[in-house]
Design brief:
The protein is of the alpha/beta class and 362 residues long. It contains 11 helices and 14 strands.
């Protein structure tokens, strides 16, 4: 088995290296919309669309509904507008991978799943799979099974998928951008030669479970304990992961807390998390008339808002921070930028347009 894995690695390395050099800046949109909503967006500014989400059903990759099936077919048809566009399917999502730990714990389970991934991709003429298992080895959605064996089982799953998919289909995974995931969830040095890229979820770094406000998607840490995009990237680079296989994430939404004291404009203060605001609604929500003030953390390279009248604090990406993130990708020669998620963006003069404008200047 070890000799087979070594041979397999040697076979794939030149292929994957070539694919990286040909496409050195990926713009990857996760997409939860239907077959009609995608028509509002300019797909020529994207390199990948990842349909979200598919799930496990009887151990196989399952497209959940006719609506989802029609959406996937529509996405594939967009290659007529952008021949280089890749359409991928995503497994899981937050709360969407409850049986993953159990199903992927055996060779049979992994092989059955891998074969189903190939079959579904071939049926829809898609270009690969993105694994969004939140999370191997550590707790994700409360109540979902996680166990130490997930770490090696995830590695075996990646190998099974690459063996089944061959060189034709792309293989990526969404990774938590926080330190516990980086340290404990996956075997980086074993899986990264096999996958095309890792999509770092460098958002929700302060999440809905937090009782203290903070930047949820900063580029840089402002103190030793703060999670950030750069912290995750540097961790992977120090492991020897090729920079071109690292993709960072942008959040097209804010997280919001209420009952937040006006100290430090609400940043790093106690509060109660409530529903956030999507970028498409920023202009109508974060207005002076409604009591909101905008702030920019120069050290973190992160935007935030505070409403002193209502004691509300919001954190998220905006046009300024997305521009900074895109420049960060270019400066560090990373593989690109992905975001959650396309339908949260404006169809014109939105965040994708910011990414595209910076990318064209490189």
């Amino acid at each position: 088995m070890k000799n087979f894995k070594l041979y397999f690695l040697l076979l794939l390395v030149p292929v994957l290296a070539t694919s990286q050099s040909k496409n050195n800046f990926s713009v990857i949109a996760y997409y939860m919309g239907d077959e009609k909503l995608i028509e509002s967006y300019d797909v020529t500014k994207l390199t990948h669309i990842i349909f979200s989400f598919c799930h496990l059903k009887e151990g196989k990759l399952s497209v959940d509904s006719t609506k989802d099936s029609l959406a996937i077919k529509k996405l594939v048809s967009l290659k007529s507008k952008n021949p280089k566009l890749k359409i991928m399917l995503s497994l899981g999502g937050w709360g969407g991978c409850e049986p993953c730990s159990s199903v992927f714990s055996t060779d049979e389970g992994r092989n059955v799943f891998a074969k189903s991934v190939k079959e579904v991709n071939d049926y829809f003429k898609c270009d690969g799979i993105d694994l969004d298992w939140e999370y191997p080895t550590i707790e994700g959605m409360p109540g979902h099974l996680f166990q130490p064996a997930d770490k090696t089982n995830f590695t075996a799953l990646v190998f099974a998928l690459r063996k089944e998919l061959g060189k034709k289909h792309e293989l990526s995974f969404a990774a938590g951008g926080f330190q516990k995931y980086l340290d404990e969830s996956v075997e980086w040095k074993k899986i990264m030669p096999i996958v095309d890229r890792v999509n770092i979820m460098s958002y929700d770094l302060v999440n809905g479970y937090s009782k203290v406000t903070g930047h949820h998607t900063p580029i840089f840490s402002t103190n030793d304990k703060e999670e950030s995009t750069n912290r995750a990237v540097e961790f992977l680079l120090k492991l020897g992961i090729p920079s071109q296989k690292i993709v960072i994430g942008a959040a097209f939404y804010t997280r919001v807390w209420k009952d937040v004291a006006s100290i430090n404009h609400g940043l790093y203060q106690a509060g109660i998390h409530i529903d956030g605001v999507n970028f498409i609604n920023y202009e109508s929500t974060f207005t002076k008339d409604k009591g909101w003030d905008y702030f920019w953390d120069e050290k973190a390279k992160a935007a935030y808002w505070y409403n002193a009248n209502e004691k509300l604090f919001a954190t998220g990406d905006d046009k300024v921070s997305v521009r900074e993130k895109t420049n960060y990708v270019i400066q560090n020669k990373l593989g690109g930028i992905m975001f959650w998620e396309l339908t949260l963006d404006k169809s014109h003069n939105g965040l994708v347009d910011v990414i595209d404008s910076v990318k064209k200047l490189k």
